[in-house]
Design a protein that fits this description.
There is one protein chain. This protein is α/β, with parallel strands linked by helices. The chain contains eleven helices and six strands. Strands 1-3-2-4-5-6 form a six-stranded mixed β-sheet, with helices on both faces. Helix 8 (191-201) packs across helix 10 (217-231) and helix 8 crosses helix 11. Mean pLDDT is 79; it is low at 1-14 and 167-180.
């Protein structure tokens, strides 16, 4: 099995048709057919350039170091080093590439593990082409994006409370369907900050949060900066997961 394949047209002078720098993407999947399909789907579309491929997590780390892609589209389950292991390794070294996880498996465990590890988005492999393209563009702009099925799971987990989110089962061995009561703000977090955090977890954008809480977008951003610091997270997705874990 091939470990890695470089594209023949990568380079620092890559630009889209408008003259703006292209979004440089690395494809990581152990199935060559899947990589080929992804390349056909996104390469040259809306200013996206595929600059390389890798067949496992270890090869992906080498490619990230040598190519410095803006976005990595990466499968979760691969031999030698899984996508989750590679994602964690990238986070440990402070990699700047944004990672979009791809998988044929849509279990809650994979979803939460990937987001906690620092993935900016999570898509199913059968997502339509336009959704994959938009996920790449959003990831490059540090905006999270999820398949509708994945978003529905996040909403269900958030409404179920931290017990189900952490995999806890009821006495009969099945997850409880009773929503948890809304948790108060954690220690060190103001009530207003917690309101902002909960609306982030519901998927609202800064403008929508401001309109809901009658505050300016600048004030929303100030609250977010404080939340990131206090909860030790680096992006909105990780903040949403922390809110879920804390029962918000």
């Amino acid at each position: 099995m091939d470990a890695m394949v470089n594209s023949g047209h990568g380079g620092d002078d890559s630009e889209d048709r408008t003259g703006s720098p292209a979004v440089r993407v690395l494809l990581v999947d152990d199935e060559a057919l899947m990589r080929a399909g992804l390349r056909l789907m996104i390469d040259g579309t809306h200013g996206i350039e595929v600059v390389g491929e890798a067949a496992d997590g270890a090869a992906a780390l080498e490619q990230v170091r040598s190519l410095a892609p803006d976005v990595v589209l990466m499968d979760i389950r691969m031999p030698h080093m899984t996508g989750l292991e590679a994602l964690r390794a990238l986070q440990e070294v402070g990699g700047e590439s944004r990672v979009v996880m791809l998988t044929a498996f849509d279990t809650d465990d994979f979803l939460l593990e990937a987001l906690r590890a620092g993935a900016v988005s999570f898509l199913l492999k059968d997502s339509p082409p336009e959704e994959v393209v938009q996920a790449v563009l959003d990831a490059a702009a540090e905006r999270p994006r999820f398949s509708p099925e994945v978003l529905a799971r996040l909403v269900r987990l958030a409404s179920a409370g931290p017990a189900e989110a952490n995999g806890a089962d009821g006495a009969d061995g099945e997850s409880s369907a009773t929503p948890a009561a809304e948790a108060p703000a954690p220690e060190g977090i103001t009530g207003r900050e917690w309101e902002v955090a909960r609306l982030v977890a519901e998927g609202l954008a800064n403008q929508e949060i401001g309109e809901t809480l009658f505050m300016s977008v600048a004030t929303v951003k100030t609250h977010l900066g404080r939340l990131y610091h206090k909860l030790q997270v680096t992006n909105r997705v990780q903040l949403a997961i922390r809110v879920l874990e804390l029962g918000g």
